[in-house]
Write a structure and sequence with these properties.
This is CRAL-TRIO lipid binding domain-containing protein. The chain is an alpha/beta fold and 330 residues long. The protein has helices spanning 2-13, 20-28, 32-42, 47-64, 77-86, 116-142, 166-179, 194-203, 209-212, 223-226, 263-279, 298-329, and strands at 89-94, 100-105, 149-154, 184-190, 215-217. The longest helix is centred in the last third of the chain and has 32 residues, at 298-329.
Length: 330
């Protein structure tokens, strides 16, 4: 069944003409079958639906200049540092199987230093750098195809005010779901506060079984569980210590993978600036964000409406508790 679906899908893609064929090459990076498998899995191995998903994604790439997005740095550097300090993401190392470990500071990201467009641009650039540079390098180093990563999501500091960021997070999530499917093998969630635990009970039943199997909510900072698949040196800084202050940004730039001074971000930014010089060697770098259209996903919209409803319930409960405390203290 699987091989037959792949053969059918490949036959359809062989008929695709330029410029879709060229942008498809940037997606598969020489691993056509593995790429087709990702889109098939995302559509439950339904070939027509997977084909439509991939074609829609290729059109999205063309319409939004995604193939060239790694040549469009966010400048000046100080402004980009603000983006990095408020959109916490980085690579802390690799698992013992060679998969890159992406660390994401969900709870402490504020997204308040730039417009939405810059954050979307930054996120897509990291996706493209992962797919065109990090994963091919990991494949070469390990002598076998590596096309996925693991993500460790730090929920430290998660507040009810995070509801204000839901629109942006939904846009980013929708872009990932529709254009970068099946790139993450496991999501490890750590440093979980009560508010997340309560919402997770509501959200989990709404997820597809395939997605639920990828999510693992770990106790505390998750260090002991994560050390089963990676060395200590690959742990995100927020997984290295338990207790108060465990999520504090590390003073050591080589440990804090969120920092622009971390090797990952220094290499990424250097790569983007170099690509910019190759593409437009005689033109100065332009200020301003890249505007990327966000594809519509009705299922994602419904999911987020449910999440927002539950989030507001906890917000109302929290306000009621605080009002009760004031009355008691009077």
């Amino acid at each position: 069944m699987g091989q037959e679906a792949i053969n059918q899908f490949k036959a359809l893609m062989d008929q695709v003409d330029e410029p879709l064929r060229r942008t498809f090459q940037n997606v598969h990076q020489g691993y056509i079958v593995e790429t087709l498998e990702r889109f098939l899995k995302a559509r439950d191995w339904n070939v027509p639906r997977a084909y439509k998903m991939l074609i829609d994604s290729l059109h999205w790439r063309l319409e939004n200049g995604i193939d060239d997005i790694l040549s469009k740095p966010i400048v000046p550097t100080n402004f980009y540092r603000g983006v990095r300090d408020s959109q916490l993401i980085g690579v802390s190392g690799y698992t013992r199987e060679g998969l890159p470990v992406f660390a994401i500071g969900v709870g402490l990201s504020t997204f308040d230093k730039a417009s939405v467009n810059y954050y979307v641009q930054s996120h897509i650039q990291i996706n493209e750098y992962r797919d065109r540079v990090i994963l091919p390098a990991a494949t070469k180093k390990n002598g076998r195809y590596i096309g996925k990563c693991v993500k460790v999501l730090d929920m430290s500091g998660l507040k009810l005010s995070a509801l204000n960021q839901l629109k942006l997070l939904t846009a980013i999530s929708t872009i990932d779901d529709l254009n970068y499917p099946e790139k993450t093998i496991t999501y490890y969630i750590v440093n979980v506060p009560y508010i997340f635990s309560a919402c997770w009970k509501v959200v989990k039943p709404l997820l597809q079984e395939r997605t639920k199997l990828k999510v693992q909510v770990l106790q505390g900072c998750g260090r002991d569980e994560l050390l089963k698949i990676m060395d200590y040196s690959a742990l995100p800084h927020f997984c290295r210590r338990e207790g108060p202050g465990s999520s504090r940004r590390s003073d050591n730039a080589t440990e804090d993978c969120f920092s622009l001074d971390h090797p990952f971000h220094k290499e990424l930014y250097s790569y983007i600036k170099k690509q910019s010089g190759i593409l437009e060697p005689t033109r100065p770098m332009k200020h301003g964000s890249v505007h990327v259209g966000v594809p519509a996903d009705p299922k994602k919209a419904e999911f987020c409406r449910t999440l927002e409803t539950e989030w507001r319930k906890f917000q109302n409960q929290d306000e009621h508790i605080r009002l009760h405390d004031i009355v008691i203290s009077d």
